[in-house]
Every structure is written in C-alpha cells, then in structure tokens.
Amino acid sequence: MSKRFALALALMFAPLATWAAQFVEGTHYMVVSDKPASEKPVIKEFFSLYCGHCYNMEKRYLPLIKPGLDKSIDFQQAHVDFMNSEIGNEVILSLAVMQEMGVEEKVKKPLFAILAGGDHHHGAGESHDHEAEAGIHNRDDIKKVFTDNGVDVADYDKVAASEAVKKKIMGWMVDQQKFRIQSVPTFVVNDKYMINMSQIRTLSELTELMNYLATEK
C-alpha cells in the first residue's frame, strides 16, 4: 500500500456512494483465476504480522470497512510467507494457533504491534530485521506474548503440531502461490478477483468494491 493511498484513506472517508458502475476490470480489480468464483462470498486479506501497512489496515481501517460489508461475506485473513526463515515460520504458525485456540482477539493485535515496526511495505523476496528489534526470536518469545495477554500456553505446542493448524497454513501457502501475491495487504474476493489497491481512493470505494465483487459480479 502506498503512502498516498494510506493518506487518502485517512483524509477522504467519504459517505457511502454507488461506485459499482465505475468499477473496471483491469483498473480497479484483476481476474487472478480462470476457475469459477466461489459459491459463497468470501474476502481473503493476505497480510503479514511484520507489515506496518497491514497493521494500520487492521487497527484503523478494517473496523470501518467490516460493518459496511454484506452480511453474507466471510472475511478471512491469510498470512503470507515472504521471509522463508525459521522465526518467520514461527510467527505464521502463531497466527494459526491463535485461530485454532480461539484467542485471536486477545493476542493478534499485541503481537502485531510488536512485530510491525516501521511503516515499510514488503514485497516478495525482501528481508528485514524487525524480529531482532522487537525481541521476538523464537517460539518462547511468542508464547510470552500469549501469556502476557492472559492466554494459557500449556497446549501451545500440541495445537501447533495439530493437523488442523498444518492444513490451515498449507492453505495459506497454496493460495499465496495460486494468486501470485507479491505485496501486502492484498485482498482477493471469491477466489477470483484481486483488488488493485493503488486505484482505491476512499474507504467507501473499497467497501463498495468488495461488496460488488463478492455479491454482484
């Protein structure tokens, strides 16, 4: 996400308007699969707990976007793997564990706040040292974030090794490759349409485009 876009969202939260007639394939969104769209409306946000723009999206913008989404839409988040490192894998694993344990609301934002660091937008192949700066070096450091936020980690290792968690992470990785995710945050709608964030100027426009692609396209 460009700084220009982030600034636009911050300053131009316009009243909800009817944008559907203005949405153009190849400009506002791209088709990223030759398969039929999913039967059930779904929006997948591909993000990283290391990404400053993703943290801003989570903290500032999603709370304004989600209430405007059609109630039939299933909003999901998939963690990307751009780092291909041991600690990066542990961080991805921790998100799946949070979700499986049902404690995402307690732990994700605190861990996000520690890891996101500066306002850097990371694409595929880029590396950084936020984990060193943040003091998150291994699973024990991650577990401490869980316990500091009131979560019992007695079963953490068991959940982390479970088939459900493995399946979830494998699904994220398959989708990352299938949709050719190159940067974050990226939104894919109904497993077929990728939103071109550089063309979005307001939160209202983004919300309307999500609804259009998920329920009308």
What's the architecture of one domain in CATH terms?
Answer: 3-Layer(aba) Sandwich
Mean pLDDT score, rounded?
Answer: 87
Structural class: alpha+beta
Q: Report on the biggest sheet.
A: 5 strands, mixed
**Elements, N to C (H/E):** HEEHEHHHHHHEEH
What oligomeric assembly is this protein in?
Answer: single chain
| Shape type | globular
The radius of gyration is 17 Å
As a percent range, the share of helical residues equals: 40-55%
CATH topology of one domain: Glutaredoxin
Show unreliable segments.
118-133
Question: How many runs of DSSP E, i.e. beta strands?
Answer: 5
Helix segment tally: 9
CATH class division of one domain: Alpha Beta
- CATH homologous superfamily designation of one domain: Glutaredoxin
Strand residue content: 5-15%
Distance between the termini: 24 Å
What spatial order of strands do you see in the largest sheet?
1-5-4-2-3
Gist of the model:
This protein is an alpha+beta fold. The protein has helices at residues 3-11, 52-65, 86-101, 104-116, 130-134, 139-148, 156-160, 163-178, 203-216, and strands spanning 29-31, 42-47, 74-79, 186-189, 193-195. It has a domain at 38-184: 3-Layer(aba) Sandwich (Glutaredoxin).
